[in-house]
Amino acid sequence: MKPDNTKSELHPRNPHRERYDFDLLVQASSALASYVKLNKHGDASIDFSDAKAVKALNQALLKQFYQVLVWDIPEQYLCPPIPGRADYLHYIADLLARDHAGVVPQGTSVRVLDVGVGANMIYPLLGTREYGWRFVGADIDAKALDNAQKIVNANSLSNVIDLRLQLSKTSVFKGVIKQGEKFVLTMCNPPFHGSLEEAQAGTARKWRGLDKHFAKRGSNEKSPTLNFGGQNAELYCEGGEEAFVTTMISESKLFAGQCLWFTTLISKAANLPSVYRALKRVNALEVITIEMSQGQKRSRIVAWTFLNASQQRAF
């Protein structure tokens, strides 16, 4: 029986539900070719523990699926898994479709704020290409924003992507959202860990799990090393994911009328009770939790709004 190559856990509109077609990816980006090898089953793959190979894969995926012709990140910056990032985007698009007769609104009238846009700027790239949305990307890391701006310029995206430096390490929306400015969505992939040591331990667990996954599939990739990348602000903050998201929720009340939906990824299910308590404290009118799955990884999106049904439709 022919194996099912479909990643059925991913969102139905996610273009990465099928196994990677490395022939097509190499056609899109020849730089990937040197990293593609055959495993013992004769299937093309790359060594996912090799940071350069993963970056080359991302470059090819962005070219083939999203027409992003130039993309690069400095060494040791986070190299995001594109299929999972695309899932977040498609699920929050469904959220908007509720008030649009089930049709996802497209075009630059949909303005999205990406909190922690990073050097990779992956969400604005996917969102502008998939739905034509307009993005503001904010970050506390000036070097990351410098690289993101290079990507914007190289791909002629300055008309749909604006980047802003967050000057305060303790603020999320304050200092970024301007007076009278409105966003249909905010999104965030918060730092998960509370310290560098916790982040390193989490990375080690991730790679051990990935190593077991390779072994089950009979892959010939070597045991991975800790080279996933990620700067301090991308990986951890004081108090970890729970503290960051509860701060975000507290600040969101200040901009209740300026954003239709606030959303964030929540990696750790154990953090949900405190997130829900924080949302109750700020009197969010509607809270939605969207479960997501990418292989062995489980995560969820928490979305909240301070607007009632009629206000949501009119926003």
Structure description:
The protein is 37% helix and 17% strand. With 315 residues, the protein is of the alpha/beta class. The strands form two sheets. The protein has a seven-stranded mixed sheet with strand order 5-4-3-6-7-9-8, with helices on both faces. Helix 1 packs across helix 2, helix 3 packs across helix 4 and helix 8 runs parallel beside helix 9.
List the helices and strands and how they pair.
Elements lengths: L21 H7 L8 E2 L5 E2 L5 H16 L15 H16 L13 E5 L6 H10 L2 E6 L2 H13 L6 E5 L17 E6 L7 H22 L14 H4 L4 H13 L6 E8 L5 H10 L4 E9 L2 E9 L3 H6 L1
Parallel strand pairs: 3-4, 3-6, 4-5, 6-7
Antiparallel strand pairs: 1-2, 7-9, 8-9
Helix pairs in contact: 1-2, 3-4, 8-9
What are the key terms here?
315 residues; alpha/beta; seven-stranded mixed β-sheet; two-stranded antiparallel sheet
Which strand-content bin applies to the residues? 15-25%
Q: What structural class is derived from the secondary structure elements? A: alpha/beta
Distance between the termini: 51 Å
Radius of gyration: 19 Å
**Spatial order of the strands forming the largest sheet:** 5-4-3-6-7-9-8
H and E order: HEEHHEHEHEEHHHEHEEH
Number of strands: 9
Measured as a percent range, the helix fraction is 25-40%
